[in-house]
């Protein structure tokens, strides 16, 4: 820096700074003590701002520098305060500071500090990214003088507001469901038609919904535009010159271009003033109206006045919100719930902050009702009251709320807080006192909120006294319920005669009574919970012959006890249950479901990449994500002596015990299940399961298999062996004594060796191939046999007595009464009578048979084999 005094008495100064290729320079002339004005010339030429980033924080690998880009600016300043004049310009490219970037900046100005000096300024910014918020173009224009000027702002962006903002703006105005659906779908043109169709009620046709979506969805090239214009000027007040500013907002509009146009914010012709001299600072806005997201807000006064001698200021405001429909907003939040109706909600607020804080704010029902549509049934909720209010005067804050309707009962709450009359909000340590009450005469009216198929009934009453602190309230009271029932007939759930009694005492809750019935059994829940900074709950569930499922094809009756402990970091479940009675029949198909290759397209969501990027920018380095709650599971399940599994050819009792644990947060099962008294339909025959073992040792989806099934009532032992695992089973035929594969299949299918099979019996062997092709599904023959009630229906060729080689067709029907007794009937198609047969198997190779009919006889059969 150099300073030289010239002969004219004026001092000249110069400054020149160079850092890493970036330069800031300036020189000026001071006018001295005369009337000559000062003059300054300043210039910045910084083509490499990134080299200065170390002054704004350390560089982090993988992150862009905190400062970057190129900046060039020049300015000329003349005069001396309070009469200064300045003109200049600036250009910047690739500018970055922290998380904000600007691709290009261009500014020019000519300004003066006096009231009548010319004001001309413009600033244009392109490619703005402020912490993930992208703006393509922003421009500000200022013209006039300090006494009479005008400012204009325009912001353009290809990024539309969030779906919920666009949907509310579209739907609140029109109340049209199709418009809402199209607005939600606007962010994704690929799924716009599907989303709009899904949003239209069932009474509308697909063609109509598609047309509505096409008419109301913004065009693909829609853009966001924000416009603002302000006019005003400096004014004198209370004898002080240029003591304030008075002007008006000609327009503030935020909307989307395209067809149709969406308007999210609109403010017009709002007048106001700001004064900073002639007394305490003060600002006021004259009565006006604004529209935001479909809501219309009116205010009659908004006045702020600064405090005397540095004291706190005073705000005085009164505003109302016109009643607006609620259903469109709920449809945005829950697009699949079926909201409808004409319920409207309005609000008013009256605030005074000094000398004492006075607040009167109310949100209440303006009229109408809400409906919920499920399928083709629309149910009204029957609103008669909906109100929430905050009132404060003389340091006493009252919070009240009330809701009443035929579909959900009556609920009310009142909480009071006592604090200083000048406090703008109760502090966390402020003592509170109040009551909360809920009464539902018939819980069945809550069925609207339950998933499809579920029904609820009974009566519920809750009341509590609220005490403690504003930041940590405590509750003392009771929750009582009677005749509570939960039903889902499709799933076989039928719980009735429920009784609930819960005592609330400060930061603890204790279950005095919680019982219910299902079938001939009961279930009981006991325990308590502690709230506060470290919430903990300990519960015990006791079941006694409780019918968990009661469907025709799925019936489970269980007894046992389980204990659960829940805290902020762990869920622990420990218990043991026994199946007293059960049947799982998966022969019947469940309700139809969509295939794995079907994708349901619902409301489009914001692109996760942008959200992730924003989250990454907002999350400090080194921040650890919250840990998930750990699960500690130790549950033992005894299958009992009366559990039976049926389906896909299997009919067997299930015995054994399993232990369920959760090592490393993954479900693991250990134990062994055995099949007893079971049969398996395969190869066109009903096989007896001699050994059926499923061994679990870890993952539940892949147990070990050890299954042996044989065909009964044969002179040899032949059957099927299944080993390996459920995901990789190995199936093979076996026989005792061992024989060829074709003989094993022949004995299994037709009951005799392959060398005795004639041409007609070849069709029976083909049943084996058909059974293999049928997979797990029962074949047509199997279904017919089971429907008639027989275990066996067969057709064979026999020789007519005394005719030598003359063949006749014989039909055989049979029923396995028990493991040893078999009853059969056979008759030739050309015979006038048939014969009955009764077989008792004494041992594997010894049997006694009795025959009555054309030929009456008693036979003893035995087989003696030697090698």
Key traits:
39-stranded mixed β-sheet; 867 residues
Q: What's the short version?
A:
By secondary structure, the protein is mainly beta.
Low-confidence stretches: 175-217, 603-627, 772-777
Major sheet size, sense and barrel closure: 39 strands, mixed
Shape annotation? elongated
- Radius of gyration from the CA trace? 43 Å
Task: Tell me the strand percentage band.
Answer: over 45%
Work out the helix count.
9
Number of strands: 48
Rounded average pLDDT: 79
Structural class by sheet pairing and helices? mainly beta
Describe this structure as you would to a colleague.
By secondary structure, this protein is mainly β. It is 10% helix and 57% strand. It is built from nine helices and 48 strands. It has a 39-stranded mixed sheet that branches. A hairpin with a 5-residue loop joins strand 1 and strand 2.
